[in-house]
Structure formats: C-alpha cells, structure tokens
Amino acid sequence: MTEYHTVYKGREETTQWDDIQRKLGNLAPKEKPFKPEAFTPDVHEAATAKRGEDWLATCDDVGELSDAEDEFQDDEFLEKFRLQRIKELEQDSRRQRFGSVEDIRGSEFVQKVSQAGEELWVVTLLHKEG
Question: Which residues contact 112 (CB under 8 A, 6 or more apart)?
C-alpha cells in the first residue's frame, strides 16, 4: 500500500518539489543549519576551580585569598540554607494533604457538599448503585 501522508521533520528536510525548484533556480539555495562552536573552558574558570591545599600554600596574593574566603563563606551559607529547606520540605510532606473519601446519600448532599465551607474543596462522584 502507498503512504499518502508524509510528515516532515524540521527545516533540514525538504520536499521533492522544493528540491526540483532549487535545481532549476526558482528557489533560493537552502540555508546551512546552524552549528555552534565547540565549547572551550575559560582559562580563568579552570584556574579558580582547582583551588586546593597546594594552591593555598603557594598563594601570596591577599586579594585572591580574600576572594576565596568569600566564596567559601557563600558555600557554607548555601549548604546551611539547602539543609534548612530540605528539613522544611520533609515537614511539609508529612502533613496530610487530602481529607477523606466518604460515601453519602442524597439527603446528606446539601449538608456535606453545599455547606462545606469556603476554604474546602469538595470533589463529588455521582452514581447509582446497582
């Protein structure tokens, strides 16, 4: 059986009609797809990332040491904040989110659903038994 419907996947794929029209010069040549340059890490970033005990022992610049200390203090603050936030999330997860599922009769509907209160959400499933 022949497939009558064709799905094109992006700008790189063209129809046969477009290819013929480009070959005849009726359409402009197809644009080449954009390719970004390969990533090369910054020399400064690589130097600051490798600050260990060796770097600390050989560093004579007071400005660099104070910058490293500031970064370390920021890391401490972020770690404390992260642990505090995890503790808050754990406490929130223990809290019950949903109420209960109850089977009610038609005579109880107004009391339990219509008069439930503004702050409560009520979801109902109406059905007949049998």
Answer: 102, 104, 122
